[in-house]
Amino acid sequence: MGADSTALVIGATGNVGPNVVRQLIGEGVTTRALLLPDDPRAGRLPAEGVEIFHGDLADPDSLLPALEGVDAVLLMWPFFTLDVETAPAVLAHIERHARRVVFVSSIGVHIGYEHADNNCHAYLEQLIEKTGLAWTFLQTTGFTANARLSYAAQIKATGVVRSPYGAAARSSIHEEDVAAVAVRALTGGDLAGRRLVITGPEVLTQVEQVRIIGELIGRELSWQDVPAEAALNAMVGAGWPPAYASGALDYFSQLTEEPELVTTTVEEVIGRPPRTFREWAAEFADDFR
Questions:
Q1: Is the pTM of the predicted complex or chain greater than 0.70?
Q2: Fewer Cβ close by (within 10 Å): the C or N end of the chain?
């Protein structure tokens, strides 16, 4: 797949999508991005080099203009804001137009924590497998960028992060490294039919992540554990689907006893090790000041 090929990024303005778009452009691939008509994060995309199409996964037919002439599709499903009712129709359209799909999934599928009847990542993997598409699943741990969402407001306001399960130990992955693996899968056929477990290079507890941020911004930060029930109510109030919020908290509870695994997949695929959490935090330190 080269300059005469076309890739479509669905989920183009999240944490991973803009990095995929930039890297595809850098590879000389004709790059398209699917955005909601009123997407407030459209400014995350490069000003040049990407064709913008508007559509909504809730309306599968709205994807058709973006899919015309496409060879490969990166798919990230917005589980927080959209159920999977339209997923079969979306995949049917993708199958009719593209040859290859790369789906950003979750490590929860790999470890057996997520099941298809949850109507989440495992369900989408199952649907994709039934198509005639050449598929690759990126079963990722949490993104390092989640630290911004989880910690930044509290760090700036008080210097104290109040959240459950500070001892939960994660192998968070830099979103640019997820993107690099995705681009490799989108542009080459040798990763077809593979479930790639994508992790960062190290395991850190949430408390350790906050300590690293504090060192980089020159402030003494602290962590205060709060009851999971209070966190669940806050998450649901912020728009998390209740089952998704409950599952996330249960998983973090599990990680206090059994840390997330670390793989060498990123280095095997792209030829260099993934970035550390400290590298990510140094890059975005101003977001915590």
A1: yes
A2: C
